[in-house]
Amino acid sequence: MRRSTLFIVLPLLALLAAGCDRERNTEDARALAARALRGALAYPQSTLVNLSAGTDAAELTFTSPAAAADVAEWYRRALAVNGWEVKSDQTGRDGAIAMYAQQGQRPLWLTVRPNVGGPGSTYTMIGAVVAGDSIK
Q1: What is the Cα–Cα distance from 44 to 66, expressed in whole angstroms?
Q2: Considering the entire predicted model, what is its pTM?
Q3: Domains of the chain
Q4: Can you list the positions of beta strands (E) in 1-136?
Q5: Whether the Cβ atoms of residue 39 and residue 102 lie closer than 8 Å to each other
Q6: pLDDT tens across 61-119, in order?
Q7: Could you tell me the CA-to-CA distances from 68 to 26, 60, 82, 131 in Å, in that order?
């Protein structure tokens, strides 16, 4: 192989390897999010904007065409029906609604904010995998 071809091929191989690693990390993040947020539902007609995960916790961010108050009210009912106990529910001066719920020892943090400059809302769900969680 000529030297100029190596200068082209080697960086391409490095990019492909990085892309494969990113794909595996995305799959790992999705698996952890599924485990950490098992039993927590997304508001109907929501769009996933971001997913991030560490080793024990995951965060999902969604947008919704619904108002923040409507999303929060839906969660108050949906969480109770699905075995979550809402421990804290507060509304800030900016209209953001922060909730903390538990299902057994499993925590769930939910923050719903009205979109600025337009209709709808953005909300974040954070869940964690706790010791003794046997679901894989």
Answers
A1: 9
A2: 0.75
A3: 3-128 (3.40.1000)
A4: 47-53, 57-64, 85-91, 97-103, 106-114, 121-128
A5: no
A6: 999 999 999 999 999 999 999 999 999 999 999 999 999 999 999 999 999 999 999 99
A7: 29, 16, 21, 33
